[in-house]
Write a structure and sequence with these properties.
It is built from 8 helices and 2 strands. The chain has a two-stranded antiparallel sheet with strand order 1-2. It starts with 16 loop residues before the first helix and ends in a 7-residue tail after the last helix.
């Protein structure tokens, strides 16, 4: 990679295995299509993973455009036509790759930004990384509600519609249809002094 730009050593986005696979596929099929952002010293603000993956695929030539934050910067490619099947696939691929390759390092983000800024920008202390931590798994780790049923006492919770929708969102992030598992994990997270922010 050119010495004109440098990777951010404290990149808050760790990326994901699936997102990395999509990124590789996108670059192999369409090339480098989304411009990154660098600071005045050439350090990458946004695009660390894209630049790294492109470099691995042999795309090393760098074109730097001086930007103006008061102007909308658009990069035009003459080989793209959004009214074609290829153009539509590219648009979908770029959006999906960006969506699937985000995994924020919560601890590092809070250390660098502070909790107020972290929360202001929608930072989530509760995310999919927690499910990889054994402290948040059910006792045998297979996520079966029947396996934890005997360890819990039945309770009834009255919720407003908004609160119930929030709970459904938490279940979605937990990737479970079981209210038992979701509620159990929420209790464990709170006992470990984490907050649920979504």
């Amino acid at each position: 990679m050119s010495k004109k730009i440098k990777f951010h050593e404290s990149n808050l986005n760790k990326g994901t295995e699936f997102g990395d696979m999509l990124l590789e596929k996108s670059i192999e099929k369409f090339g480098f299509r989304e411009a990154g952002v660098i600071d005045k010293n050439g350090k990458i603000v946004s695009g660390n993973h894209r630049v790294q993956k492109s470099s691995e695929k042999g795309i090393d030539e760098i074109q730097i455009i001086k930007g103006d934050p008061n102007k909308i910067i658009m990069v035009q490619y003459d080989d793209i036509d959004l009214d074609t099947e290829n153009g539509k696939e590219l648009a979908f691929a770029l959006n999906q790759t960006a969506k699937k390759n985000i995994e924020i390092d919560t601890k590092l983000a809070i250390e660098e930004l502070g909790e107020e800024i972290f929360s202001e920008w929608g930072g989530e202390k509760f995310n999919s990384r927690m499910l990889n931590n054994s402290n948040y798994h059910t006792k045998d780790g297979d996520g079966d509600a029947d396996d934890i049923e005997n360890d819990l006492f039945p309770i009834t919770i009255l919720q407003t519609k908004e609160e119930y929708e929030d709970f459904l969102e938490i279940k979605r992030k937990l990737n479970t249809n079981s209210s038992i598992i979701a509620f159990s994990l929420i209790i464990k997270i709170l006992k470990n002094n984490d907050k649920i922010i979504y």
